[in-house]
Write a structure and sequence with these properties.
The complex is a heterodimer of chains A (about 550) and B (about 425).
Chain A lengths: L1 H18 L2 E11 L3 E13 L12 H9 L2 E10 L4 H4 L9 E8 L6 H16 L11 E2 L21 E6 L6 H9 L15 H4 L4 E12 L7 E14 H4 L4 E2 H5 L12 E7 L8 E4 L4 E7 L2 E9 L9 E4 L13 E8 L5 E10 L5 E9 L11 E2 L8 E7 L8 E9 L3 E10 L16 E3 L3 E6 L26 E6 L3 E3 L9 H24 L2 E5 L6 H13 L1
Parallel strand pairs in A: 1-10
Antiparallel strand pairs in A: 1-2, 2-8, 3-4, 3-7, 4-6, 5-6, 7-8, 9-14, 10-13, 11-14, 12-13, 15-16, 16-21, 17-20, 17-23, 18-21, 19-20, 22-25, 23-24
Chain B lengths: L1 H18 L3 H6 L10 H12 L14 H13 L4 H33 L15 H17 L1 H8 L4 H16 L3 H15 L6 H12 L3 H26 L6 H11 L10 H6 L6 H13 L3 H8 L3 H15 L5 H10 L13 H24 L5 H35 L4 E2 L2 E7 L1
Antiparallel strand pairs in B: 1-2
Helix pairs in contact in B: 1-5, 1-6, 1-7, 3-4, 5-6, 5-8, 6-17, 7-17, 8-9, 8-10, 9-10, 9-11, 10-11, 10-16, 14-16, 15-16, 16-17, 16-19, 18-19
The chains are: A alpha+beta (about 550), B mainly alpha (about 425).
Chain lengths: ~550, ~425
Amino acid sequence: MLKLGIPSFFLFILILQIKGDDFKEEIFIKPLPPSHLYVNFHFITLVNGEESFEHSHLAPRSLGEIMSRYQVEELHLTLTEGQWKHKQWGYPVLDAAPGAELYAWFSPEVIDVDAHWKKLSSTLSGLFCASLNFIENFNTITPKMSLWPTGAQKLKQNYTSQLRYASLPREIVCTENLTPWKKLLPCESSHGFSSLLNSRMIHNTNYHSIGVHVRRTCVDNNCLDTNLEIKQTVALVYDFKIINSMDWSFRKLFGQGLPGACPLSSSSKIYIDTTSNSTYRFKLSPEPNNIVLSQRGGSETELAVYNITNSVMMNIVAKYETKDKIFVNIPPPLTFTQYVLGYGKEFGGIVTELTNNYWAPIDVVLLENAPWWLPIQLSSLRINGEAESKLIMSQYYSPGKSRQKPYHLELLLRLPPKSTTTLTIDFEFVFLKWQEYPPDANHGFYIGSALISANLPTAKNYTSLPIHGNTFDSVINASKPWYPMIFRTNGAMVSLPTPDFSMPYNVICLACTVVALAFGPLNNICTKELVLKAAGTPLSLRQKIFNIFKKKKD
Amino acid sequence: MALMRKYFVAGIVRYWLIHTDYWQTIANRVEIATPLNSWKRLIEGVYLYDHGIDPYEGDSFHESPIMLLFFHFILKKVPYLLPLIFTFMDILTAHILYKTSKAFVRLFEETQEKNKQHVAEESKTMLLNKSQLNEAPDYVLSVYLFNPYSVLNCVGMTSTVTQNLLISMSLWGAASGQKLLACIFIALATHQALYPILLVVPISILLADVNKGCNKCSYIRTLLAFVLCWGFLIYISAYIMDGSYRYVYNTYGFILTVPDLKPNIGLFWYFFTEMFEHFRLLFVCAFQINALALYVVPLTLRFHKEPVLLATVLIALSTIFRSYPCVGDVGFYLALLPLWKHLFTFMQQKFIVGCAFIITSVLGPTVWHLWIYSGSANANFFFGVTLSFATAQIFLITDLLFAYIKREFTLKHGSSRRIDDKPAKLVLQ
């Protein structure tokens, strides 16, 4: 049975290869000395052509139908827990905002983009069991400069108007999101690298982010034909403190060894960044298949490559030789941080600090996306304390409207070399209606992270794939004049003033009483005549009390 | 001379306070600056307008386009003159109120003369003499100049300063019989804050009284002039905003639908914070009718012979019940009260109202601090204070009206409260 199975399997793959559909899986592991380990999974499914989607045996049909029904050109969805620390860890392959983040470009034929967007988010909400259905007009923006499509696009078309972006910083990512995500893979979680994604282990990390990225890529250089690329990613950052030692192994990280490659994949590779080996020596076992030296944008990276072909249980182990060495962290070219200013619940400010550690100026686009309940005042924008700064090269502002539209500010800034640029913008706290507060209103409200897109002049700490690359091999020796990256700053939290939730009846009664206090006398004055009326001799209080007792005696 | 000294001192106090470090704190106080009139929002609107962004697209600016243009001009050309301009506007308001009250006093004298034959013999002493009448304008002036509510309002550089100026101008125009002037200014005030539309009624009565002749024709002419002025202003504003009427939603719409629930001294904020969603529209309508329409007709029918009293009461009631009131509005109608100094003897709740004003004015900022900054109180505390402040104002106004009808009665029937030598009391029947 088994003997018969394997050849037919290969035949099957062969058919798929002819058809042009392709599946690859990759793991990229990078130690982040001294205390963390970055593991990044990539599952790439390429579908040839546009019509063949329904006949593909590799691509998830559920996702494909969503793409074609809502005419989505490019889609990026990430569900993230934790905060990537750019200053300490360098740059991730793909950055993601805390919570849920979704952005998509719709096809230029779509006229009512907002309606499609709403439907898309609701459908994805069902597909991934995430609260994406909370995406409404009041938390959706259309970035003008920060985001650009990464896939193949027809030239001379206005893509910005077809873009929608939303982030839900409050979203909590859990197993229920991972399970449907794994179901989209051809091998699901039974074979291949995805069998390592054991929710018990991966939710035990400092940072984890799962994502789905769909785009169109060119088949060849002429780009007459396009493929649909579905890339599913998982990024994990392990804390050595949690796994209890610096030595790591697959068994320690994922609770089990690697059971081999997915039979449907055309390539299953593991890349381990061993550049830090020169300072923090560690030994890998088993020995890697080969070691690649990559020179990219003035920085050298050494990658140990494992080519997994068989389905034999395997456990990659790294053993550190020196354990207590002082590590000097050299920060990447661009670092940033965001925080909230002020005390009390009346006025506050958001501060964004951007540090350029490079010797040349860096141009960045900063996108501040404040929810409607955090009205920012553009007139209070200060860059390094100046109202009219020369650093701003271009600016876009769309004021928010309560319960309808968020505040959206985009700035193209030229960050001077070796300097920190501080942006402050003031906001006023909004008093919401009592039913608009989420459960546990005093927990606070999350502010989404700001987006920073930059074209970095150097590839130091840069791990992202080049824009045309599908797989990790494309990183090797991929020197380019610019290294584009979209960063997310850390999120923040504010505590909005709350009413007393137990009071609605009392408040309604009291306020109406006061209104009645005016209405009654005014009604009397207007409708009645003042007359003198004979009165009986009024009883004094003493007499009244006396009368009561008198009655009782009777 | 004494007059000049008053103006000078009041001007200096205002100008100095604007230049102290407390200015920012004062300009940000919830009691002084509402979303409708705050200086901060005006600056934001002008900034957006200056940068080619429609200020009415967002939710940060609720002034009329005319104000936008006016302040855009000032902020661009002479920003350093702003404190001076605000001080000057407030002093001008005081001066116009002074002149208006002089005209009003003349009106009082005339009516008193006319009704003399109806006055009971024993009440003749109650009639106002020259010196009593001449005192009133001085009191009006002093109250407006030195009332902390008005002072703080001016120091906070709120747009209520402009509004008070416009209302006083229209009252003056009415008192001096200049129909067009009155209509233009009342239309400007209405265009800015909507609620002054109530004043059309007393102003048209006043104009008819002052100008004499055909009453009905005068009413119609005034009303027509007002509608034309207002319509023209609405059109001009749209012209300023490149023909877009979107500003209407952000000015009148904002006032009427109360979307911003930031606390103020009024009744709306907590009521609509705690309102059940499906009753919101009903209660918004009820409260706005209460502020805009409910009292106009009955009060007009009852007090059409006293348009000045009608104007005072309508200004006060619309201040108490408007959606975004501030202390500047309160200060304005308090300044009109000395005109009714002769009624004070008939008022019963002066002491209670006085105490309530003082206590709430002290407690308001205190509980606000406790709620917002130290977190040891909650919204109910501030709500309680605003509620009692509103109650105090209501008591003041109803008491004033009661005092007026009691005085009327006394003038007519004498001050004796006896029927056939038996004790009797005054009742409404």
